[in-house]
Design brief:
By secondary structure, the chain is α/β, with parallel strands linked by helices. 47% of the residues lie in helices and 16% in strands. The protein has eight helices and seven strands. The strands form two sheets. Strands 2-1-3-4-5 form a five-stranded parallel beta sheet. Helix 2 (41-57) links the parallel strand 1 (23-30) and strand 2. The longest helix has 20 residues, at 180-199. The chain is elongated, with a radius of gyration of 21 Å. The relative contact order is 0.12.
């Protein structure tokens, strides 16, 4: 965790290496809760402070002003907080948001402020497709859903000749951010359907819900219809 945010901070600082700035102002945007999140402020703050100590040790910058903002994992709260930061004074770079729903609106406004956003988030396909048109100041330092689904497709499904896929996913709040599981499942379905023309995949995505008969789904669909290659 510490390495991820130290790397993210290092990339952010590279945005200013061509300048003669003695100090920069950084806003770190992440949710305060739930604290169990990999990228919650509870875990992010110590990592960012370690990164700042390393920057000062190497004498890259003399001073770094840091503000931590709670995005509440919200597509509404995150841009509102970003507007507040911009209105209060000079801002050089945003670290985060990480969650795709919070990152999307902030990422669209940032080009108008001419401010880079450096984040280990931005997992969804849209951040790649609309990189130049909607997110020109966005820098992603982590993996994406595209890279994960491509790995599963090429290294597992094609390697073993598996063509029948039953995908079970839900909207429960368990992943790196709210809605992570749903977006990941959707990205996987899109990737396989794009390749199904040549590879003839048979795909059945199933969004789990409380009224679903899990026994029937596992025995009849997974075990029966999708049990073989």
């Amino acid at each position: 965790m510490s390495c991820i945010w130290k790397t993210t901070l290092a990339v952010a600082l590279c945005c200013f290496f061509c300048c003669s700035m003695a100090a920069i102002t950084v806003t770190v945007m992440a949710p305060a809760s739930p604290k169990s999140r990999l990228f919650s402020l509870t875990k992010v703050i110590p990592a960012v402070h370690r990164g700042i100590e390393e920057v000062k040790r190497r004498e890259i910058l003399s001073h770094i002003n840091v503000t931590f903002v709670d995005t509440e994992e919200s597509a509404i709260i995150a841009p509102v907080e970003a507007f507040k930061i911009i209105r209060e004074g000079r801002q050089n770079v945003f670290l985060g948001p990480v969650g795709d729903y919070a990152l999307s609106p902030v990422g669209r406004y940032a080009p108008f402020w001419n401010i880079p956003i450096v984040t280990p988030g931005g997992f969804s396909h849209d951040f790649k497709v609309f990189r130049k048109s909607e997110y020109p100041t966005l820098i992603r330092t982590g993996p994406s859903f595209d890279s994960v689904t491509a790995f599963i497709d090429h290294e597992i499904l094609q390697q073993y000749g598996w063509r029948k896929i039953s995908l079970l996913y839900d909207k429960d709040d368990r992943g790196l951010f709210k809605g992570f599981d749903y977006l990941m499942g959707s990205a996987f379905v899109v990737q396989l359907r794009e390749n199904s023309i040549d590879l003839h995949y048979e795909i059945k995505p199933s969004l789990l819900h409380q009224t679903m008969n899990y026994t029937k789904t596992l025995v009849e669909d997974v075990g029966g219809k999708f049990g073989g290659k």
